[in-house]
Amino acid sequence: MPESKRRRKPAYTPQQSMGEHKAAKLGSPTWLAPTMTACFVIGLVYIVLFYLAGPNIPVMKSLSALVNVGIGFGFIVVGFFLSTRWK
Questions:
Q1: CA distance 82 to 63
Q2: How far apart are CA 67 and CA 49, in angstroms?
């Protein structure tokens, strides 16, 4: 039985665009790591300072204990949210 001839297609070559391509920037912004670390440290220092010297600091004395702890944990939570964007 005779074999059928195969059709030959030319190889695909993509068109080359004119101009320069900018490389995609991978990684985190430069401000992210210092801000994240600062939020962790500020939150931790605020909570420790509240428990050690809270009655002696006028601003902490006027706020309730729950608000003071909430402020400290708020900084820590912001640090965790920033850490999810770190690459």
A1: 27
A2: 14
37 Cβ neighbours under 8 A, 6+ residues apart: 79
Q: In this structure, what token pair is assigned to residue 23? A: 């490389």
Q: Return per-residue pLDDT of the chain as tens, 87 residues.
A: 777 777 777 778 878 777 666 776 778 889 999 999 999 999 999 999 999 998 898 888 899 889 999 999 999 999 999 999 888
Task: Give the orientation angle of helix 65-83 with respect to helix 32-53, to 10 degrees.
Answer: 160
User: Quick check: 22 and 54 in contact, CB under 8 A?
Assistant: no
Residue spans of alpha helices (H) in 1-87: 32-53, 58-62, 65-83
- Domain ranges for the chain, please list them: 32-83
Question: Which tokens belong to 58?
Answer: 């006028």
